[in-house]
Amino acid sequence: MDFKALFKDRKFRYGGSSALLTVLVIAIIVVINLIVRSYDLRVDLTENKLYSLSEQTLRILDNLDQKVNIYALYRTGNENIAVAEIIDRYERRSNQVNFEFMDPLLNPQFVENYKGEVTPDIGSVVVVSGDRYKVIQPQDFINFTYNYYYQMVPESLAIEQQITSAIMYVTAERVPVVYRLIGHGELDLSASFLDLAKRENFQIEDLDLLTVEAVPEDAAVLLLVSPEKDFTAEEDEKLRAYLEQGGRMVMLLDYSAHERPNLDGLLESYGLRLEKGLIIEGDANSRLANPFYIVPHFQSHLLTEPMISAKSLVVMPLTQPITVLQARRSQLKIEPLLTTTANSWAKDNFEEQTLNWAEGDAVGPFNVAVAVTDGADDGWGPTPAKLVVMSTSGLLVDQFDQLSRGANSELIINSINWLNDAQEQITIRPKPITTSQLSMTYMQQLILSGVFVIVLPVLVFLTGFIIWTRRRHL
């Protein structure tokens, strides 16, 4: 064979150039894919960043100091792509995280090893670290709501929320215990709040101060929800002793016909006073149809920032003004969390026949939730007491929590995390699932159909024909 003549042949040279170009393009594509996988340069183009990890999750992953194994249970070949995509980002972010699929039918002993309150099944995810584990059921990954026809429809994706919560649980040194004070006619906690508290790895226990010598040492936070009656002097003394030693407490208080001098005195010790009037919101954009059901404005604070970023709205029924006292201890740091508008007023005369503002009614804006820190929170001196005080227990009523799309419960959980100095655990919001529709007129549909069905194929054909004709005459 004459190789010199072969290399001089015009068809061979053009064919060789095409082959070389093809190999080069394939090589470039392979290199780009390797770079993308090595440096995680994937871009999440979904509207609500369904597959992206939040800043809270990234901080938790960056601070992991122990191995975490995540097992997704699916039949081989039937893996859930959405779950895999999100958990894969955990593994790429932290070398402490290992992720793998597990076929439960091929590995029945694996399922037996992690049987407990919940039995792993197809679609479950098991998060393990050391001797601790948590099983997440597939139905926990999606939050549902009811549409106009009372049919259940998916509302939000909670994969990141569940996985991150499980990682925090299996790596925590201890599970925080939140004691709910009882014995004064307090309201029960709502089902939605208890569900979120469990998901956020809190242990909720009841505490009657008259049955113990002091607040238990394992108390992370005390929770007081709408006491009808006052504390006794003995209970008041125990509460004050707990707070003076750096205790933490959330108070959700309602209007009461009973005098509560001990409770009022405790609030005054921390620079606050709960006024008697009920707030009426005059701004229609900051309330529901009922003017007593307000939608307050968030103020900048560590525990509210995630909710501000997510544009969350809380619904607070039957609130009272919280006044910050001018005469208070200098070391008290009092920060507003939620406020009404300047177009609000408070009525304490319920014999009036009108809800309109009248002479003598206090005028807003009012504080309806505040955070108190007693002393410097710099890690050097004594542990400061911290309180979060809100002027309604309606935040924990399921009806209003549903109206707020869970933001009411989230606010309480964020408050507990802030009080527990666990700011990195402040609640991660589920990602809303939105369905975007492209609306077009008949003429627009006709034009697009013509472009894709006729114009583009004709252009491709003409381009190919011209190239073929030119090469044929070379």
Description of the structure:
With 474 residues, the chain is α+β, with helices and mostly antiparallel strands. The protein folds into 4 domains: 1-41; 46-173, Glutaredoxin, CATH 3.40.30; 177-432, Rossmann fold (3-Layer(aba) Sandwich), CATH 3.40.50; 439-474. Helix content is 34%, strand content 21%. The chain contains 13 helices and 22 strands. The chain has helices spanning 3-8, 10-39, 55-62, 81-93, 108-113, 159-171, 191-199, 233-244, 261-269, 305-309, 398-403, 407-419, 442-472, and strands at residues 68-73, 97-102, 125-129, 132-136, 142-146, 152-157, 177-181, 203-207, 219-225, 248-252, 272-274, 278-281, 293-294, 297-298, 316-317, 322-324, 332-339, 344-347, 362-363, 367-374, 385-390, 431-432. The strands form 6 sheets. It has an 8-stranded mixed beta sheet. Strands 2-1-3-4 form a 4-stranded mixed beta sheet, with helices on one face. A hairpin with a 2-residue loop joins strand 3 and strand 4. It is globular, with a radius of gyration of 31 Å.
What descriptors fit this protein?
4 domains; Rossmann fold; 34% helix; alpha+beta; 13 helices; Glutaredoxin; eight-stranded mixed sheet; 21% strand; 474 residues; globular
Distance between the termini: 23 Å
Uncertain segments: none
Radius of gyration: 31 Å
CATH class (first level) name of the largest domain? Alpha Beta
Give the number of helices: 13
**How many domains in all?**
4
Looking at the structure, what is the overall shape? globular
Number of strands: 22
CATH topology of the largest domain: Rossmann fold
